Amino acid sequence: MLLPCKPPSRAGLVRLAWAPARLVQPRSTYPLRRLYSTATGSPRAAEIRDVVHLPRRITPKYREPPMTTSGLLSLQWPTPPRNILLMPKLGSPQAIRSTIDFAKHLQSTYPDLNLIFEPRVAQMVHEGVNFPIYTCDPSLFPDKIDMITTLGGDGTILRAASHFSMYSSVPPILAFNFGTIGFLAEWKFEEYKRAWREAYMSGSGVPVRDLLTPHTRVASGEKSDEPDHDTASGWHSSPGKSMGPSRAAKILLRHRLKVGVYDPNGENINSQLSPTTRSQAHLPASSPEEDTNTTPGSRKTVPPAIHALNEILIHRGPNPHLAIIDIYLNNRFLTEAVADGILLSSPTGSTAYSLSAGGSIVHPLVKSLLITPICPRSLSFRPLVLPLSTKVTLRVSNKNRDGELEVSIDGKRSTSVPVGTEIRVEGENVGETSDGSWRGGVPCVICGPGKGDTTDFDDDGWVGGLNGLLMFNYPIGRG
């Protein structure tokens, strides 16, 4: 029997040919090796390689710039980043197409980069490029990824952060807005050349003449005629002009919450929290970091903590009765909450579920955590904003009529917990370690001013997001 061959890709001519029918191996069974298109005359598809052969992760440093009170940090790369994770919004053809365009730009302009994708995304994009790409089990990402670029909304950023939820160090995230609201994703994709270059060259130390718009030469295709002064650090092969020694990309460090779930016997059951979606199926049950160390004077291991960027939720789920939850602050009893549920949120999460539940809006640089009730029985139960150092315990009361409640962390992990279970939450320690490295938080690259933009470079865009995206205090009746 004769069947029509698959037409060539857009890069080739569209024509019909006839060929003998043959069996095609299902895509899900392809190994990580060179893949070929079945179309006659079409360009060769990308080779998918394993990240195991890539160099280990480069960890940048973050510095507080002099003469500023904004709270933003400066991104300082010791050497050029090499391993870049590209994460498009799942289920969005526009985001996938833009990811392919962005990958082609990076490969042609920065050929030393290694572009990495989640396994299912690699299968989506490999036929659209003709250069090698990388993938692996996402549990290996923390050892390999230098920087993350997301093309989606707030959910895509949460997905990126979830790959590092068991780790104290997260790579910088450069986020392009393809989301419904995209409150956390500041950059427009039209600015991808400038955005990438500002993040990539930040801290290179190469002197420049024009520090106001260092991106314009590369974005317009103009080559730099400035001599190279920093060949020792590896920046000599980078195209165009750098940010210069006195300017670096600005970082908004978003604090996370550390979570431990304990059964009625006091045993940590974090490993029992199951992934909520297929994209989170890789999430590890424990971290190989210092969480496996023993406590001083004891043989008992320190239970691994899960880090939440947005919130921890405990709620009644499908049960008909209200949840009853005892709340403790620093081991001191605060109140017995009777409600649909309780939210513990970070400042970043204050504009998510907590906001819909009537919680306060908190600037992400305010070191705090929030307790927000969901539909409480008592009208006097108001949201609370507490210091980040506060240790909060939520205990499932034995007064619960339905026995079990449900716990969810950032919407990525969840489980049902019985009476007597405790959810212990505290703020993550953030700062520079003794060896000069940085631990804690989720560093996000802030959109800086473009050419001719008079906006203060220390502006973190938060006020603009409140007005433009959340329509803060928008007058009733205005069209």
TrEMBL record:
<dbReference type="InterPro" id="IPR017438">
    <property type="entry name" value="ATP-NAD_kinase_N"/>
</dbReference>
<keyword id="KW-0808">Transferase</keyword>
<keyword id="KW-0521">NADP</keyword>
<comment type="similarity">
    <text>Belongs to the NAD kinase family.</text>
</comment>
<dbReference type="GO" id="GO:0005524">
    <property type="term" value="F:ATP binding"/>
</dbReference>
<keyword id="KW-0418">Kinase</keyword>
<protein>
    <submittedName>
        <fullName>NADH kinase POS5</fullName>
    </submittedName>
</protein>
<feature type="region of interest" description="Disordered">
    <location>
        <begin position="263"/>
        <end position="302"/>
    </location>
</feature>
<dbReference type="Pfam" id="PF20143">
    <property type="entry name" value="NAD_kinase_C"/>
</dbReference>
<dbReference type="Pfam" id="PF01513">
    <property type="entry name" value="NAD_kinase"/>
</dbReference>
<feature type="compositionally biased region" description="Basic and acidic residues">
    <location>
        <begin position="220"/>
        <end position="231"/>
    </location>
</feature>
<keyword id="KW-0547">Nucleotide-binding</keyword>
<dbReference type="InterPro" id="IPR017437">
    <property type="entry name" value="ATP-NAD_kinase_PpnK-typ_C"/>
</dbReference>
<dbReference type="GO" id="GO:0006741">
    <property type="term" value="P:NADP+ biosynthetic process"/>
</dbReference>
<feature type="region of interest" description="Disordered">
    <location>
        <begin position="218"/>
        <end position="245"/>
    </location>
</feature>
<dbReference type="InterPro" id="IPR002504">
    <property type="entry name" value="NADK"/>
</dbReference>
<dbReference type="GO" id="GO:0019674">
    <property type="term" value="P:NAD+ metabolic process"/>
</dbReference>
<keyword id="KW-0067">ATP-binding</keyword>
<feature type="compositionally biased region" description="Polar residues">
    <location>
        <begin position="267"/>
        <end position="280"/>
    </location>
</feature>
<keyword id="KW-0520">NAD</keyword>
<dbReference type="GO" id="GO:0003951">
    <property type="term" value="F:NAD+ kinase activity"/>
</dbReference>
<dbReference type="InterPro" id="IPR016064">
    <property type="entry name" value="NAD/diacylglycerol_kinase_sf"/>
</dbReference>
